[in-house]
Amino acid sequence: MPRLPSKEVDILALARQMIAGYRSHGADFSSINWILLHVKRIVYANARKGQIEAHSQMKLATDSKNASLGTLRELMKKCLKKSQVDVAGEPDKLQYIGWGPKAPPTPADPPGQPCNLDAVIQGAGTVLLDWKAPARGSGGQVRTYIIERREQPEGDEFGNWRQVSIAIESESTIMNQPRGVQLEYRIKAINIGGESPPSNTVAVVL
Fold first, then answer.
1. pLDDT band, residue 121 (cuts 50/70/90)
2. Quick one: which of 24, 18, 52 has its CA closest to 38?
3. Strands 202-205, 182-191: parallel, antiparallel or unpaired by DSSP?
4. Which of 10, 200, 15 is nearest to 119 (CA)?
5. 95: Cβ contacts below 8 Å, ≥ 6 apart
6. Measuring CA to CA, which of 1, 38, 174, 191 is 20 to 30 A from 110?
7. Contacts 24+ apart (CB under 8 A), 162-169
8. How far is CA 34 from each of CA 8, 12, 22, rounded to the nearest angstrom?
9. 3-state SS track over the chain
């Protein structure tokens, strides 16, 4: 047995089919007042039309309100600029109009320290570095990561750290690396506020 639809479009489609069937085969469905069903469908159609018209009017009213708000904002912006010139020597007076002198820019916090750096040798001269982003709340948002490397030639001390790559995500595959020497890698996170402390160090020989 079919189930009565619950979606508006399906209800309307079935109502039309029922009315058409009752009208064409009235003798078979003598107990049905299909005219009443037809009237109720017309009542629905009128209500639907009213809803569409009301929605259109609401959209027009919303657009008009937003346009008026934009005009008001632009005028306020012009007034505030002129007011800042008027009291340039005494900017505290801007408080009289609910405004105030421009606040000095707040410096951004550098990111926190990347952690859990790990290295997986991928092949000759290639290493995959994987690490975790700084802990939430430990500093500013990371813009990018700097990957640094230092080398220890056989019998010598480690050289200085130098940048070998950058990354946006918290992993990077580094290719064409020196082979047969001790290598160490570390990660720093940076943003406009500066750079983080370096991550832990990992050592590999490729």
1. confident
2. 18
3. antiparallel
4. 200
5. none
6. 174
7. 168/144
8. 20, 15, 6
9. CCCCCCCHHHHHHHHHHHHHHHHHCCCCCCCCCHHHHHHHHHHHHHHHHHHHHHHHHHHHHHHHHHHHHHHHHHHHHHHHHHHHHHCCCCHHHHHHHCCCCCCCCCCCCCCCCCEEEEEEEEECCEEEEEEECCCCCCCCCCCEEEEEEEEECCCCCCCCCEEEEEECCCEEEECCCCCCCEEEEEEEEEECCEECCCCCCEEEEC
8 Å CB contact between 115 and 135: yes
Q: Give the predicted TM-score (pTM) of the model.
A: 0.51
What does the pLDDT read at residue 137?
87
High-pLDDT (> 90) share of the chain, %: 62
Straight-line distance from the first to the last Cα atom of the chain, in angstroms, rounded to the nearest whole number: 71
Q: Residue 91 corresponds to which amino acid?
A: P
Closest CA to 114 of 157, 89, 144, 83: 144
**List of residues 6+ apart from 190 with CB closer than 8 A:** 110, 111, 142, 143, 144, 145, 146, 196
Per-residue pLDDT tens digits for 106-118? 888 999 999 999 9
Residue 133 has which token pair? 């982003």
Cα 116 from chain centre = 27
